[in-house]
Amino acid sequence: MQAETPAIEHPPPLEVGRFEQLPKWLNLIPMVLQWMWLGVKYGSITLPSAANPGITSGGMVGDGKREYFGAMGPLARAMTADFIAVKSRTGLAPSTVTARMRAADLCFPVVAKPDIGWCGYGVRLLEDQSGLADYIARFPRGETFLLQRYLPDPGEAGLFYMRDPGAPAGRLIGILLRHYPSVTGNGVDMIDELVARDARLRRATTNPLHECRYDPRRIPAAGEVVRLSTVASTRVGGAYEDGTDYATPALVARVDAIARDMGEFLVGRFDVRYRTLERLQAGEFIIMEVNGAGSEAVHAWDPRYSIRAAYRIVFAKQRLLFRISAANRRLGRRPVGIWRLARLYLRQQRAIRRYPPSN
User: Fold this and answer.
1) Which three-class secondary structure state does DSSP give residue 230?
2) Which pLDDT score is estimated for 24?
3) pTM value > 0.85
4) Which CATH number fits domain 82-150: 3.30.1490.20, 3.20.20.30, 3.40.50.10170, 3.40.50.261?
């Protein structure tokens, strides 16, 4: 029997691609221009908020993780990592939360994440009760966070799904393979020296909303791989790879079945952990969270793509999003207004700035 290909949690360093090198505000300009053109064409710049009825703004902004979990039927829920939701309040005792964890069969380590989040902001791995107490003390009052079972599987992927209303089946328009920021020791240099030599990893040391999970003065042994972060976002030095070619009928069918078990969920991304690429292709994975219409086609950030190729992928996703949302509108699903969308965005941004740093 042929051995399975392990998921590569710590790949060889990937160069920073041309699209990724652009300032965020600059690479957004062409996307915004096409979005505005599509808004004129379809008569609404907020039309994609009609993509997923029942989810706040269709998942464009301001949506909570619990909304997607709450929409899940038995199949989708069985493939999702267990969690509890905690409303932050004055006087909340860590012992009260750990009692709820025990009742839900959760134990440390767990991953803490804001219900309303973005790009891994506020996501922390909590090793013990002292870590939980620290997170509770730093989390903004009145907001909700989740404590979710930590998944040790080495692979992480984002599965981009779309389905036309009434269509017999949906499809995967992209597979994102995330690679965690890491360094490989040489037995001589300290971790901070290894990080300083990597253009991508230097982001992790300069991001005010992220705390590094390593001792910068430690000298890793030759060949030792040190993972630097719980989250794999590019904002902290993670790397994105386009794994769309790994799609198989079995994987597409499994994702489609899960999405159909979530009511009218038509557009979004499933963030999953998996053990090996073969098991992912067979449809064997665990869902960490789900995102809606606001999910970016970030597999286009693969360093092998030119800027032209990256925008081709992003533009295609936007066109599909508007087309599906327009079909939903014909069925009576109404988009939210521009001012409502703006208020949701501002609320989310204010909350992000108050969350504890990710790690």
Assistant:
1) coil
2) 75
3) yes
4) 3.30.1490.20
